[in-house]
Amino acid sequence: MNNPFSWAVRVYYEDTDAGGVVFYANYLKYFERARTELLRYKGYEQDELMVNEGIVFAVRSLTVEYIKPARFNQLLQVSADIKHIKKASLEFVQHITRDNEILVTGEVRIACIDVKTLKPKAIPENLLEQFKHEY
Question: How far apart are CA 124 and CA 109, in angstroms?
Answer without folding.
Answer: 17
